[in-house]
Amino acid sequence: MTRRLRVKRQTTIVSTSDKNKVKKLINLISDNIVVIETAQDFNKAAMKELDVLMHELHLNEFKATTGDAGYITPESRASSVIIPSSFKAKVTDEEFMECITVGKTKAKKVLSEREIEAISKSNKATKKEPVLIVTPK
């Protein structure tokens, strides 16, 4: 859930022309958001249709006037996980404790919330600047 903080408004007198400028910009941005979302929906549908058609025609790539289409295979990234018991056998207890972190989700499986709070160190939240958000109606 996103949390939004309300910005305290300063009471100032705003002219009608300035209000109209603000309204115009909000409406412009809102309209553009709707156009972009509509275009994205259209592109998703068009991509699905193109994928089906290219498979039916056994095409791996195709060049058009304003763009090219083709299939690529994304590279996969290998990852490795260190086995804690093997790592602990190779290092001192002090070195092991410097390297280890415990996730709160995993800790909740074996300890109560109260026990976790007693042994946890918390960082205070930093104050963030307000962000302007425009949402279409």
Plain-language structure description:
This protein has 137 residues and is mainly α. It has 2 domains: 16-71; 81-120, no CATH class. 47% of the residues lie in helices and 4% in strands. It is built from 5 helices and 2 strands; from the N terminus they run αββαααα. The protein has helices at residues 16-56, 84-90, 93-99, 104-107, 113-118; strands spanning 61-63, 68-70. Strands 1-2 form a two-stranded antiparallel sheet. Strand 1 (61-63) and strand 2 (68-70) form a beta hairpin. The longest helix is centred in the N-terminal third of the chain and has 41 residues, at 16-56. The two termini are 20 Å apart. The mean pLDDT is 85.
Summed up:
The chain has 137 residues and is mainly α. The protein has helices spanning 16-56, 84-90, 93-99, 104-107, 113-118, and strands at residues 61-63, 68-70. It folds into 2 domains: 16-71; 81-120, no CATH class.
